[in-house]
Amino acid sequence: MPYSQLQNLWGRSKSLAKLKIINLSHSQKLVEVDELSKATSLKEIVLQGCTSLERTPRVDQLKKLQLLNISSCTRIKREEIIEQIKGLDLEGVLRETKSESMVFSTLVNLEPEENTESF
């Protein structure tokens, strides 16, 4: 549902237990996504460009999460998300893919190095 006009997610009426990937990128009116903390099967959350988003879901409850993209979410403070995933990072779960990118992944080298040649 990229570019949606949602302000909030579905609330308590939807079962999110089987949800694996959600892409709400560039949903500029989206304010909160707290319900995603209940989606325990989530592997990817893409919230890139959600400029009204004030906080991320509780990622410490999402044990299968492999990607959290909150780049260009200007209301989310980087320090807050770093603190939230700090315990997970010790287990090697989520790491920022590139300094200050606000993209967190279980994959280590997502960004190519600047001085590498391509063939």
From TrEMBL:
SUPFAM superfamilies cross-referenced by the UniProt entry: L domain-like
Which parts pass through the membrane? Answer: none
Q: What is this protein called?
A: NB-ARC domain-containing protein
The root-end lineage is: Eukaryota, Viridiplantae, Streptophyta, Embryophyta, Tracheophyta
